[in-house]
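To close the chapter, one final illustration. This time we ask the reader to focus less on the individual chains and more on the assembly as a whole: which components sit near each other, and how the overall shape emerges from the parts.
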Amino acid sequence: MKWPLPGWIRHYHARHLPHDAIASITLMVLLIPQGLAYALLAGMPPQAGLYASIFPALLYALAGSSATLSVGPAALPAMMTVITVSAVATPFTPAYFGLAAAVALLSGLLRLVLGVLRFGFMANLLSQPVVGGFIAGSAFMIILTQVPNLLGIPAHGDTAWLLLLDIARRLPMLSRDSLLLSLGAFVMVLLIRYGLQALLHALKTPASLGQLLVKTAPVIVMILATLVVRFGHLSVKTIGPLPQGWQGMALPDADWGLVLHMWPAILAIALLGFVDSFSIAQTLAIKRRENVSPDRELMALGLANMGAGLTGGFPVSASFGRSAANEMAGAKTQLAGVLAAFGMLAILLAGGNLFVYLPVCVLGVTIVMAVSQMLDGSLLKLSFRYDRRDAFVYLATLLMVLFIGVVQAILAGVVLSLALFIWRTSQPHLARLGRIPGTEHYRNVLRYQTETRPDILIIRVDENLYFANIRFVQASVIHFLRQHPKTRSLLLVLSSVNMLDVSALQGLQTLQAELQAQGVSLHLAEVKGPVMDKLQQSGFLDKLTGSVHLSIHAAVQALSHAEAPDFMI
Amino acid sequence: MKWPLPGWIRHYHARHLPHDAIASITLMVLLIPQGLAYALLAGMPPQAGLYASIFPALLYALAGSSATLSVGPAALPAMMTVITVSAVATPFTPAYFGLAAAVALLSGLLRLVLGVLRFGFMANLLSQPVVGGFIAGSAFMIILTQVPNLLGIPAHGDTAWLLLLDIARRLPMLSRDSLLLSLGAFVMVLLIRYGLQALLHALKTPASLGQLLVKTAPVIVMILATLVVRFGHLSVKTIGPLPQGWQGMALPDADWGLVLHMWPAILAIALLGFVDSFSIAQTLAIKRRENVSPDRELMALGLANMGAGLTGGFPVSASFGRSAANEMAGAKTQLAGVLAAFGMLAILLAGGNLFVYLPVCVLGVTIVMAVSQMLDGSLLKLSFRYDRRDAFVYLATLLMVLFIGVVQAILAGVVLSLALFIWRTSQPHLARLGRIPGTEHYRNVLRYQTETRPDILIIRVDENLYFANIRFVQASVIHFLRQHPKTRSLLLVLSSVNMLDVSALQGLQTLQAELQAQGVSLHLAEVKGPVMDKLQQSGFLDKLTGSVHLSIHAAVQALSHAEAPDFMI
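The assembled structure is written out below.
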């Protein structure tokens, strides 16, 4: 596999530069509050959020296939980090920081390896209801974890239930200043989001500019809140001073034995981060008519996370909000992301006291506002309308995220999805076919006006034949046979059978023996090429009491000639 | 659910009586050595094997649906008992006896409940390669466990590896008398099996009588061995005296907390015992052209095991050897089994000192000879020829039984079978279709001589569409499209799609958006009824950029009329 300089560097057009430069400013305006907020969510120091905005973005720009995807701090991986790592270390302590960085590094390495081995298909085990339920459950969980920050109380809990209990218990400790500041920030954000947009609309500003200006809401609120705290002498928790200068690159200082024990969570972070990020890349790609490759995306996201891990960051992923804003601001290539990364580096180096008076509760507001956009009921609604069982998988995953745990939720979701698929294929539809008079077409006798012969029973099996359904099919065929006792030949139509495993082969042999005992011969029709090849090499066809026919009509004609003509209708 | 007196009692024909009586003697001749031997194998006292031959057989006769199935002590459940229960108690101790009986009771109760709830389908999760690999692995394991008995040494081990090590370590303690007696018994059995049969054949005795006489080999060898030990004063381990009289019926005296912790093993015993027993019943049923119902068999086997558990027995199942002999001896109804059960009761009541001098090593020979008939390589050979991946599942299950554990082996086998099925359906075959000139038939362009149009791309998907393959299908369709850049309409042929889940629905929506971005409309053809109904109710069809057509030909005709005629070939 060759990995040259990415196309966007080799073929960079000077005319893209102003667009990318403007987009990079938009990205920075979003990255500053999000970096700080998701670091807070992840249980990490504020500078970790800034670090996580730099190297991951640069590495993705070099390795990824999407032109506008913004990889860096994101809500989902931040929440999975805190839930996973807080089980073995206390958030906001040095031991925890090392573990979180190690998780980022390993989840990145795992993705890189899976991508190189072309194992990206593993992510296909995550069905839409599982991913949807997981994201919705996580969004609720993230909002819950921010409630203590909004109220200025300390409260913890690994599950929604424990967290709610702890919040209820500590509610009397509520900080009035925090609560007021949070409410003020909420009102401000909503005012900017809806009021400003209405105002700009009235002023006939282009809609896209209006949408972009609205995205500055978090930064504006951050600046206002910082001023209020600085000059209003509010007693609320603030970020405080950041360490000075660049901390360099290093292997995380972590208990690696402990890290390796967290492998299920690391795998979950790797796969879910990939699925989430890839579907964002795909959505953007459709708009821009470009191609994103799953295996390449997996590797690029792997490198980005390794970069996060080696610079004291935490697991990163693509952010839909930032990527969409980047696109809307006119970004043409990943140069926008690269420029924004250097901008974040400048802030980190200059930073120091920039965020001393930035209140934590306002970051909580930023998180809640960002995450509430992840709450999208459309998939659940569609699932309810389309198939309740898919909706059940969605809700089960959602509830497990809230009340049991994220890794268990994903595992249970995958198992449920697979079980549902097995269940759906384990009791296949079997149809008795008859001839549509005057034609060579044969259809389900229950749905069409058809003519049938008492001596030939034609059954179409609408499913692959494999171990989980072959006994059911056997029993169903025997049941049909009992309803049609004059049958001399049974014709199985295998037009929908794409696969037939060795258990099904044995089942067909048993069925043939049962039929033979009743004086009925077994015929096959419309066998697909690959299935035919395998039946041939197994020797089953040599022992077949009947024959294999190309079409149902050919079979009926052959059987009519072979048997007494007085059976004709 | 009504459960009247079984049909064979209500409609008993006097002319069946002599046949059933003769068959019952055959059954007893087999049950005496097998009852004692499988009790030994199960780590139970000899009388437990006799008890396990009485109530289970009577209960099965009342509840089961097969006329000739012999339910009672059997190799597979005996081995699963010793492996499961010896993990928490020492075989041949009272604590162990109570636990084994409790396992029989609970595995019976579980089967009864599963049967009443019509959950018999759970057994369908056990594919043929898993069951075959499990039986072969168990047969090897059972033979290994008898090696210490044959050599007269004590040796234990939960896995083949540990057992072999222990046997090797204790080999110097080998009892010459045991070894000689075992060898003598083997030679005798083989002489009777092959020599007697040849002799009877030469004397022109009917073949079936010969085969029946051969079945008496274990009893003859037992009697001879008892005499040799009694009068030859050999120093070998013998059965010793049995407790006098009937011990009554009681709940097993066991640590129930411990028993409930063994639930995975109990579930495994319940399901495997059922699969094994049901497939024997089915094989017999085919010969006799009778019907066996899975749910009723499950309940009957459940009652039989509850009977075993309440009379101090151990898990029981159908025995293929005994059932076939019963059939061969002319049994017409379950009366044969009932009479044999009363015969066993008589022996138990009279018993006492009957087996004092019966050497344990000869029972070991009986077990080895019986179990070696379970070693049948035909399924493995078929799997190798048919599909190596099925053969891999077989061998993996076999090796796990030997080297890891029976419950883990079944679990891993089920997971492997399911994973294999998911894998097989996750990368479906997609074919581009063309028209066979002069017809309305459309076939794979790679297999047939066809004509195609550059503006219409026809793709047939040969698999259900669901979460694990929809991304693959999406990518494959886009790949086809890139090869045919003049495409204006994409026609997806869904004739093989029996099921389409909500993830696939979303995937089709994404695909349609991708196509739309490239100016290509999406059409569907040959959509099956149930899939069509669901697509309709989801609202997908309202947003379809193309239309749904009944047949490929209808679609092509409609598209030809709609579009510029200069695209025609």
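Residues 430-567 of chain A form a domain with the Transcription Regulator spoIIAA fold (CATH 3.30.750.24). Chain A has two domains: 17-419, 430-567. With these observations in hand, you are ready for the problems at the end of the chapter.
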